[in-house]
Amino acid sequence: MNPIHVVGGGLAGSEAAWQIAQAGHPVVLHEMRPDRKTDVHVTDDLAELVCSNSFRSDDVEHNAVGLLHEEMRRSNSLIMSAGDDHRVPAGGAMAVDRIAFSQSVTERLSKHHMVTVIREEISGIPPKEWTTVILATGPLTSPALSSSILELTGENSLAFFDAIAPVLYKESIDFSQAWFQSRYDKGDGADYINCPMDEEQYTDFIDALCTGETMPFHDWEKDTPYFEGCLPIEVMASRGTDTLRYGPMKPVGLTNPHVGGRAHAVVQLRQDNALGTLYNIVGFQTKLKHAEQTRIFRTIPGLEGATFARLGGIHRNTFINSPRLLDDTLRLKVEPRLRFAGQITGVEGYVESAACGLLAGRFAVAEQRGLPIIPPPQTSALGALLKHIVGGAASESFQPMNVNFGLFPPLDEKLKSGRRGRRDRRAAYARRALNAVDQWLNTESFHQ
C-alpha cells in the first residue's frame, strides 16, 4: 500500500495526516522544522499556534466558525480533540493552552502506528514516485518550494503583502441610499452597489482615512512588496485630496436614482461570492486597525448599519489562486497527484486551515482506494468553505477568507417562515448544516 505524503506539519498537515492514519492508510508527514527554522515558530512541535491561542467562537448555533468546530468534531478531527482537551477559559470562545495543545498533537501523531514523521525540508515539487501528495505548507512556505510551485502553476507570485478589502453582508446595506448600477451601465448594467458622497462627506472621509490608526509591520515583513494594484486606501488618500475621486471612488458614469444627478464621489461594492450574499468594497484594501475600519467605513452613506463578514488587513501571505488552479477535491489541475490544504489554498484562520486539511486527507484516502470522492454539501460549513476556495469566489479577485454564513446558500423559504432576526436565521443555517454534514458522513466513501 503506497503511503500518502503530507508536506507541512502545521494545523492543516497534522489534521490531514490524522484523517489518513485513522482510515488505516499509511501516511508520511514531512515537517521542515527544526532542520529549517522560520521567523515566527518558537518550538519544534507540530501544529504550533504562532499567533493567537484562540479558535474563536464556539457557538454552534449562531456563529459559522462555532458550527465548523462542531462539524469537525463529528468528523473525528484531531485538532478539535486536542483543543477540547487543553481548553482555557475564554467565555464563549474556544481558546487553548498553546504549548500543551501542540505537544498533544505531536505526541498523538508520533505514536500512531500508521504515521511516519520525517523532519526535513521538501525544497521542490515532490518526486513522481510519491503518487499522492498533500501540500500543506502554510503562509510561510519556504522560498525554494514557493519557486517550484510558481513554475509548475505559471503564477507570477505567491508571497506578497495582500492588502485585503473589507467584505460585508448585502442584507446589511441601506438601499434607501445605495443603488445597483455599473459605471456607464456596462455589463448587466447593475453589477455594482453604489454609495454616494457629497463634497463635505468626502472631505471628512479623506481626513478620517489619513488620521486613522494603522497596524504596524513585523520586522520580517518589512521587505515584502505590496501585491500589484492593492495599495492600501489610506496610502492612496495621503497622496492628495482628490486621489480617490480619480481612482476607486470616481463618480463618473453613475447616476444616483434617489436624488438624480451625479455624486461628488461614489464608493462601489462588488459581489464577492457566487451566491450574491457578500460584497467587497472596491479598492478599499487597508491596514487600518479593525476598530478604525468599523468606525470610518460606517460613515459611508448606506453602510451606517453594515455588518462585516471580514474586515480588511495587510500581512505577508502565501497562497495560490485556488479557484483557478484547483479542482473540486483540492487537486492541482495541472498535476492531479498533488493536493493543497490549509492557508496556502486561501482559507484564513486556524480552524479553517485544519478543516481544509481534514477534507484533503479524506479525499486522498478515497482516491487511493479507488472509491468515489464525495465532497460535503455546500449547506454545511465544511462544504461552504470548500466551495468558496475551489470556485465560489471569483479567481480575478480571490483573497483569503474566514468561514462565515455569507458563504452558505440562502435558506429555503420554508426554513425562513416564522423566523425573525439574524440570530434566528443563523440558528436555521446551523440546523440545516448539521443535518447535511451528518448525512455526508453516513454516505461518503471514506471509511468503506
Q: How would you portray this structure in words?
A:
- With 448 residues, the protein is an alpha+beta fold.
- The protein folds into two domains: 4-158 and 319-443, FAD/NAD(P)-binding domain; 167-310, Elongation Factor Tu (Ef-tu), domain 3, CATH 2.40.30.
- It has helices at residues 11-22, 64-74, 78-85, 98-111, 143-153, 199-211, 233-237, 290-297, 322-325, 350-368, 381-392, 413-416, 422-443; strands at residues 4-7, 27-31, 54-57, 87-88, 93-96, 115-119, 133-135, 159-161, 167-169, 179-180, 192-197, 265-271, 278-281, 308-310, 316-318, 331-332, 335-340.
- It has a six-stranded mixed sheet, with helices on one face.
- A hairpin with a 2-residue loop joins strand 16 and strand 17 (335-340).
- Helix 1 packs parallel to helix 10 (350-368), helix 2 runs parallel beside helix 13 and helix 3 (78-85) packs across helix 4.
- The longest helix is centred in the C-terminal third of the chain and has 22 residues, at 422-443.
- The chain starts with a strand and ends in a 5-residue tail after the last helix.
Low-confidence stretches: 224-228
CATH superfamily of the largest domain: FAD/NAD(P)-binding domain
The helix/strand series, from N terminus to C terminus, equals: EHEEHHEEHEEHEEEEHHEEHEEHEEHHHH
Helix content: 25-40%
Quick one: biggest sheet? 6 strands, mixed
User: How many domains, in number, for the residues?
Assistant: 2
How many β-strand runs? 17
